[in-house]
Design brief:
Helix 5 packs antiparallel against helix 6, helix 9 packs antiparallel against helix 10 and helix 18 packs parallel to helix 19. The strands form seven sheets. The chain has a six-stranded mixed beta sheet with strand order 20-19-21-22-23-26, sandwiched between helices. It has a five-stranded antiparallel beta sheet with strand order 8-7-11-10-9, with helices on both faces. The N terminus and C terminus are likely disordered. The chain is built from 21 helices and 26 strands. The protein is of the alpha/beta class and about 700 residues long.
Length: about 700
Amino acid sequence: MASLAPVTKDPLALDLTELVEHKTMVLASQSVADVYEFFQKQPHEFMPVTAGGKILGMVSRGHVGFLLGARFGLAIYGRQPIHEHMLPQHLCIRRSTPLLEVFVTALSRQGEYFYDDVALMDEMGTYLGMIPVQTLVRLQSQMISDQVRLADSQRRELQEKNQQLFRSIHELRQSRGRYEILFENSALYVVLLDRHGIIETCNQRLENLLYRDTVSDGSKSGNLQDLIPPGERARFANLLHQLETHAPEGAPNTAEFTLSLPERGPRLFKFFLNWIQETGQICALLDDITEQRVMERRLQQKEKGALLESLVGGIAHEINNKLSPIIGYADLLTDQVRGLSHLSGLENYCLIIRDSALESAKIIRQLLQLSRPHKIEMSRCDLKLLLQEAVDLLRFRLRNADCQVTFDVPDAACFLMADATQIKQVLMNLILNAADALDNRPNRQLTLRITPSGNHFYLQVSDTGQGIKPEHVARIFDPFFTTKAPDRGSGLGLSVCYSAVKQHNGEISVESTYGEGTTFKLTLPCGELVAAVPASAPRPTLSIDSILKSSRVLIVDDEEFITSLIQEALKQKLGCRIDKAGNGQEAIERLLENHYNLVLSDVRMPTLDGFGLLDWIRTQQPVLLPNFIFITGDAGSTELNQKLESSEVTVLRKPFDIETLVQVCQQKLMPKSAPALHYPKNNLIDPSFGRSLVSNALVP
């Protein structure tokens, strides 16, 4: 690229060939594929298309890559001549064109064409080379700086040499004319304000942004404070007053304000403000940082999410470890006092202790769901009940929106097989969006309708809000797309809804009339529930009881309460022989000394964790692998939980009840020829949790 040295001569006399970066070109007859290969060998982004040395148009690396990167792009476009795929707009200037005219022509282009390089040719139209637009911008910036320094130098000369007044004024007028040309083509929004915030003049870029009409004499007027939200106007006025009374020297004052722009809504700008002592004005440079702040918030949210996941995972592991013996010993105590009339009150106390511990475990699972959304787990749930619960949770928001909620649902329950947590989150997102759309609307109606039809349920969430613009309807399910202000939404809600509904083999669509309202439609399939364990399930035979009593079980956990609970439960219920180990290394020593029929191991332990123990068993005693069970409160992170789910062994989640523990262990210890216990795979459900206690159970 051409090196831009400091301008030591009149920049208007600069030869444009000095700005040329390269003279590379492609012929009009070359194929698209050849041009693509040519681009791969060149660092340039733009090249002219020529025929007989004359410029026909321009091609870019991105456009050629787009053509060939499309499906069947190489087959469709690869052999076509490049002149059929030139950019729709290109800029060619002659060598004799004045530099200021080049600035006006090149740097006033709008949209993506602003960044296109400029082709240089001689008076006969012969191609001379390419001038990068970055070079023009740098030259413009350097010229602005030079002109400002020149103006300052002229001011000092005026003070020192009165006899040169006329000549200095003439030169100053010339400099001012050049400055105004550059001022209008600045890449930033530039405005001159009086002490009250009235716009006295601004560049065309800011004028276009504000959609402001010029008055009859061509001047630009208006108060910038009118675009600032009322809550921030006092701060803006105070800043202007400080600039006037305590004019800073050196770096400009910086501040951030929101401007409500016509057709674009609220946008966040960074202001660079300087007090001009000589004219009593305030020069402000405005930079739109809306997208920058959105990305910063997303990064902060990601960091907070990682911290929350780590903290909640650790808390869940520790508290679940403490809850497990509470629930387990409460179950054992209940069994011992049940039927004893003189201790009948103790059974109720035990149930209260158990239920309270289960409620605590439910809170821990909700925290885990907040920090680390779970893998979809199906259970039977009532869509009508989920809808009512979602409305109840959002009742305060709906009351603030002052909207009337209408239910149109069947009298009967609407059962489906689904992940209740995910479906409820979808409903809450749709209702929240509807409430936001109803803000400042005269008629605020929210209608929730469920219609059963065959093997599906159709759910509609309809509002009488502002509606969605037609050009936005096709994008509303795209991640990070939002029409809300940056502080009102991240653009992820509807994309999460779309993903969750697709996971349930459902459909989600939208119908909207801008200015009248929006209806989201969900289609969810019905499902059948696997039959639960009957209360009269057959008891194991005596021969199986003998097998269970002769079995030997190894419990591996660094929590003494957990190992003692499991030891006591299995002794009472199954009569097994029990050994204990405090970590994976101790467990290996026990496994080398004795034969075991079943191993129950925690995941997170000192010295050697559960994964290390599992790897050792997989290589050294693989016959024991089907009878290995993980017991865990939480693995601690998304990565470890995914590793746990993919380990292909049974996982018993803490806190668990004694019945679930005994059923899982009994199934593992029974011989293959024994009668199977008829409890469904992945469906040992505790109603207090709404989540599976056992996953990947090896059920015949």
